[in-house]
Write a structure and sequence with these properties.
By secondary structure, this protein is α/β, with parallel strands linked by helices. The protein has two domains: about 5-170 and about 220-250, Rossmann fold; about 190-220 and about 255-320, UDP-galactose 4-epimerase, domain 1. It has ten helices and 14 strands. The strands form four sheets. It has a seven-stranded parallel β-sheet, with helices on both faces. Strands 12-9-14 form a three-stranded mixed β-sheet. Strands 7-10 form a two-stranded parallel sheet. Helix 2 packs parallel to helix 4 (about 85-105), helix 6 crosses helix 8 (about 260-270) and helix 8 packs across helix 10. The longest helix has 22 residues, at about 85-105. About 45% of the residues are buried. The model has no long low-confidence stretch (mean pLDDT about 95).
Length: about 325
């Protein structure tokens, strides 16, 4: 069976992808320093705990394990934090990738699926956003991902490293029965924050209610984490099958506002979510929805979770099972 290196595989999307990789017949080894992931998300025998920027150790691992391909998640992802600590984001997201690419080159690994972001587009000129939309990231986080995409483009031309970059916005939900779910620290994603407000009684802040949208709150493309995992596996299949380098959006193509997500949480849980309105956040766009037509046509991908209530229900099941611990 093909053996895959998954960087950042103890994190939210990475651990879900490992879960689905194993069920699809792949073998997987995870490199994660556990600074943002959790040991419990990975079988002990599969986990190698170290920083991706330890190039010597990473090179040894790649040579010993003889990976067929890499799925690269290991990145810091909080836009607000990136505005405060840009050097940390470029050091980890770009520096870590360069270390990985050096190790891959030394070990002869030539295929990589890259977890990118639709934040490379910045404030969109049209919705839904196509892949040929101009790049205009508005945060160090988005800029760091774009820099990696450009590096991968040059490597494709110069040394034949083939890659597929997957760009997406708001990952959410949890794979039923997997024991995996969303638990960032600190938590910045909407659905877990709504659960927290409901459980603690402390109002969640809605940043801006005066956007040019039907209810005044921001609209985003919320995609179930298992649908994201399936996109990464299809991209992996394509590269192993000889496919060329590419970049593709991953999204449902349908946007939901903050208030729509809040109402879905109330319907699913049967409880009210206390909320308060705050000022707009710097860098927030009124609507961000990705056009995933290319991925659907090229790789045959289609999301299984189209209902917002169904997505929220999977997240709520995980939340209940972990006892609401923060």
């Amino acid at each position: 069976m093909p053996k895959i290196l998954v960087t950042g595989g103890a994190g939210y999307i990475g651990s879900h992808t490992v879960y689905h990789l194993l069920r699809a017949g792949y073998d997987a080894v995870v490199v994660d320093d556990l600074s943002r992931g959790y040991r419990r998300n990975v079988e002990a025998a599969r986990l190698r705990e170290f920083d991706l920027r330890d190039t010597e150790r990473l090179t040894r691992l790649c040579r010993e394990e003889q990976f067929d391909a890499v799925v690269h998640f290991a990145a810091f992802i909080a836009v607000g934090e990136s505005m405060q600590k840009p050097e940390m984001y470029f050091g980890n997201n770009v520096g870590g990738t360069l270390s990985l690419l050096e190790a891959m080159e030394a070990a002869g690994v030539r295929r990589l699926v890259f977890s990118s972001t639709a934040a490379v587009y910045g404030f969109p000129e049209r919705i839904p956003i196509p892949e040929d939309h101009p790049y205009a990231p508005v945060s160090p986080y988005g800029e760091s991902k774009l820099m990696v995409e450009k590096i991968l483009g040059w490597l494709d031309r110069s040394s034949g490293v083939r890659s597929i970059a997957l760009r997406y916005f708001n990952a959410c939900g949890a794979e039923p029965g997997s024991g995996l779910g969303e638990e960032h620290d600190p938590e910045t994603h909407l659905i877990p924050l709504l659960f927290r407000a409901m459980q603690t009684g402390q109002p969640v802040t809605i940043f801006g209610d005066d956007y040019d949208t039907p209810d005044g709150t921001c609209i985003r493309d919320y995609i179930h984490v298992s649908d994201l995992a399936s996109a990464h596996i299809l991209a992996l299949d394509a590269l192993i099958g000889g496919g060329k380098s590419d970049a593709m959006n991953v999204g449902t193509g349908a946007g939901h506002s903050v208030l729509e997500v809040l109402r879905a949480v109330e319907r699913v849980t049967g409880s009210k979510v206390p909320c308060a309105t705050g000022p707009r956040r710097q860098g927030d766009s009124s609507a961000l929805v990705a056009d995933s037509g290319k991925l659907r046509r090229t790789l045959g991908w289609a999301p299984r979770y189209l209902s917002l209530d169904e997505i929220v229900a999977t997240a709520w099941e995980f939340e209940k099972n972990r006892g609401g611990k923060q």
